[in-house]
Design a protein that fits this description.
The complex is a heterodimer of chains A (329) and B (385). Chain A folds into two domains: 187 residues, Thiamin diphosphate (ThDP)-binding fold, Pyr/PP domains (Rossmann fold, 3-Layer(aba) Sandwich), CATH 3.40.50; 128 residues, 3-Layer(aba) Sandwich (Rossmann fold), CATH 3.40.50.920. Chain A has 13 helices and 14 strands. Chain A is globular, with a radius of gyration of 19 Å. The termini of chain A are far apart. Chain B has two domains: 328 residues, Thiamin diphosphate (ThDP)-binding fold, Pyr/PP domains (Rossmann fold), CATH 3.40.50.970; 32 residues. In chain B, α2 runs parallel beside α13. The N and C termini of chain B lie far apart (59 Å). Classes of the chains: A alpha/beta (329), B alpha/beta (385). The interface between A and B is large, with 46 and 46 residues.
């Protein structure tokens, strides 16, 4: 055991470092990731130790970052691109959905694009506009991309390494408001089996209602479960971890026991990931459901001014309210 | 509209007809060989081909044009969904394509059938894409010729990243050095991606040649709708050389591209080559060029035909006789007939093939959909069809 108490941000940093040590083809590309170490310092110290040809400070253009990473990938490198903030990914959207996602398919398997696109996503840090968005549904809707999100330091440490080692192009969503939250990370555990990349995880067991969340909302769901306990309700919290492909096996199994389900995310509810999850759970667990699957999410507005974000973001009370409603049918 | 009704409109310049003093040319439209030519930086270009090599360039261009014509005919007969003809651009493509060394990597658009031919790829390959039986069937790494890219200009960035990888691999400046060529048209120069590629290539000093075939039109929009300055001059603002070459002159296209690639391989950074040419046909078989350009313009460019001028040169220099030209025409015809027969024989893909290669490591969702689809298809009498 080599357990370290790390913030999620530091766990990512260590995971990136380890990936670079393990494979000389791994390179980092992004704005301000070198000397500055990234605006969130996730790549802190990597350029100093691995050189500026492996940790590349790029010009300020997101399409260029992803587009050149594609060429590097064709050349045999494994680029890890940092998009500085969620709301800045859209200039790269064409390169991601039309090129990164489709080249393997288009070439009938001849070309692999093992790119990881790291995006600090979601709100809760009091930022200005374009700095707090949840663009996961755009990418999860695109065949050829995989989309994952970590929720705690252990997952951050392992999932980033697994994503980099994978030949699949992966959009890796980092819950930026959780960068500073700490947890014990077993940095010596064997990665592959103990922490599979594309598998949901039961974060807390319970019998009365299943709460599904990912990324920054896992913490909210867990807090809601703790609060619900005082009301005598045992919530089961499942961290989806992988948004495309979805691993809903544990959710089906859970909902068949609890009969109730609430899906939580920060993104607007309309056509969000929760819609897909609710539809599939309804299909698979129809005869076990005591009530409709409910969604708790952001409103169908642009992300509001930061003084309003506490109203916008799902919190413990809104999750508990939804749980209450599942008992009202 | 303002009351005066005299809104200034961009005008078609004279450059389209006469070329410019800065345009590198080694073979005039009437087939006269110019021994050496200089670009605006004073660099001198010439070519030193053997008789066989001259004849080989002619053969390439004739075959490429004939295959292109066959593909267009196949589209008109309903055998291809669409076709993007290269007619008029044979010299730019064969000249630049033959200038590539085997180790150089090319990133094409969807019109580079001539370059594809020069890379030794079976000419039927792009027809599968346009017939709809596949999405381009060649292995980009094996042939050093990437997949056709349909989104305008996207490949300029891929090429630049690949070139950065060459630098990273230490494959510049030595005996085993490599370079990249990125193809795009005049319309693509308006795209952000092409401009971003220029910036990246410049700041990372990438071993790349941007080869812009300025064929004067982006579908219906003339070059005046893309730029107010000659395209090759754009390069200066990004910090590298821009050279305009007569794109209907296979010798100059070869010489300029070869020099630019050598410069890249030596570690001297990127070059933009603007091959000044003309698309004789439609953008694709889906549009009608008579709506947006004059017959007189077409005739003007027909007089500058890249194949006719090389033929005149070969004849006048007695490098080839009628028997040679007849033989080339016949072998091109035979190649096109063979192409036709093979296209008509291309099988439709198996329906479940649509599920192949979505992800290198698979996906439970796609795998499940494949199983459901196959079971559903099999439930019909006669199986999957």
């Amino acid at each position: 055991m080599a357990t370290e108490n790390l913030t999620l941000g530091k766990a990512l940093n260590l995971g990136l470092r380890r990936a670079m040590e393990d494979d000389p083809k791994v390179i980092m590309m992004g704005e301000d990731i070198g000397k500055l170490g990234g605006v969130f310092r996730i790549t802190d110290g990597l350029q100093k130790d691995f050189g500026d040809d492996r940790v590349i400070d790029t010009p300020l253009a997101e399409s260029g970052i992803i587009g050149t990473a594609i060429g590097m990938a064709i050349r045999g490198y494994r680029p890890v691109c940092e998009i500085q903030f969620d709301g800045f990914v859209y200039p790269a959207y064409d390169q991601i959905v039309s090129q990164v996602a489709k080249m393997h398919y288009r070439s009938q398997g001849a070309v692999r694009i093992p790119i990881v696109i790291r995006i600090p996503f979601g709100g809760g840090i009091g930022a200005v506009e374009h700095h707090s968005e949840s663009p996961e549904a755009y990418f999860a809707h695109t065949a050829g991309l995989k989309v994952v999100s970590c929720a705690n330091p252990t997952d951050a440490y392992w999932m980033i390494q697994q994503a980099i080692a994978s030949d699949d192009p992966i959009v890796f969503l980092e819950p930026k408001r959780r960068y500073w939250e700490k947890g014990d990370v077993d940095t010596a555990a064997p990665a592959t089996d103990a922490y599979p990349l594309h598998a949901a995880r039961v974060a807390r067991s319970g019998t009365d209602c299943t709460v599904l969340a990912y990324g920054p909302m896992v913490r909210v769901a867990l807090d809601a479960a703790t609060a619900a306990e005082e009301d005598g309700r045992a919530l089961e919290v499942i961290d989806l971890r992988t948004l495309s492909p979805l691993d809903l096996g544990p959710a089906y199994e859970s909902v068949k026991r609890t009969g109730r389900c609430v899906v939580v995310h920060e993104a607007p509810v309309n056509l969000g990931l929760g819609s897909e999850v609710a539809a599939r759970i309804t299909e698979q667990c129809f005869y076990s459901l005591e009530s409709p699957v409910l969604r708790v999410g952001g409103f169908d507005t642009p992300y509001p001014a930061s003084r309003l974000e506490e109203e916008y973001l799902p919190d413990l009370d809104r999750v508990l309210d939804a749980v209450d409603r599942t008992f009202g049918w | 509209m303002g009351a005066t009704g005299t809104r200034a409109r961009p005008r078609r310049g004279k450059t389209a007809a006469g070329g410019t003093p800065e345009m590198v040319q080694l073979l005039t439209p009437d087939g006269k060989r110019i021994p050496t030519a200089r670009d605006s930086y004073g660099t001198e270009y010439t070519v030193d081909f053997t008789d066989d090599e001259y004849r080989g360039l002619y053969r390439d261009m004739v075959v490429v044009r004939r295959l292109d014509a066959e593909a267009e005919a196949l589209q008109r007969q309903g055998e291809l969904g669409i076709w993007a003809s290269l007619q008029g651009q044979e010299a730019a493509q064969v000249g630049s394509g033959r200038a590539l060394e085997p180790q150089d990597m090319a990133f094409p658009t969807y019109r580079e059938h001539g370059v594809l031919y020069c890379r030794g790829i079976d000419p039927i390959m792009p027809l599968g894409l346009f017939r709809g039986v596949d999405q381009g069937g060649w292995d980009p790494n094996k042939f050093k010729f990437n997949m056709y890219t349909i989104v305008i200009g996207a490949q300029a960035l891929h090429a630049t990243g690949y070139a950065m990888g060459i630098t990273q691999d230490g494959k510049v400046g030595g005996a085993d050095s490599e370079a990249v060529i990125a193809y795009f048209g005049d319309g693509a120069t308006s795209q952000g991606d092409v401009n971003e590629a220029f910036i990246w290539a410049s700041v990372y000093h990438a071993p790349i040649v941007f080869f812009c075939q300025n064929n004067q039109y982006a579908i219906s929009e003339p070059i005046e709708r893309q730029t107010r300055v000659p395209l090759y001059q754009r390069a200066g603002g990004f910090g590298f050389k821009g050279i305009r070459v007569d794109g209907n002159d296979v010798l100059a296209s070869y010489a300029v591209t070869k020099a630019a690639l050598e410069q890249a391989r030596r570690g001297e950074g990127p070059t933009l080559v603007e091959a000044y040419t003309y698309r004789m046909g439609a953008h694709t078989t889906s549009d009608d060029p008579t709506r947006y350009r004059l017959a007189s313009e077409l005739e003007e460019w027909r007089a500058k035909d890249p194949i006719a001028r090389l033929r005149t040169f070969l004849s006048e220099q007695q490098l080839a006789d009628e028997a040679f030209f007849t033989e080339v025409d016949e072998s091109a015809k035979a190649a096109s007939q063979e192409l036709r027969e093979r296209v008509l024989a291309l099988p439709d893909p198996a329906p479940s093939q649509m599920f192949d290669h979505v992800y290198p490591h698979g996906s439970p969702e796609v795998d499940a959909q494949r199983r459901e689809f196959e079971a559903y298809a099999a439930s019909f009498e006669g199986g999957a069809h």
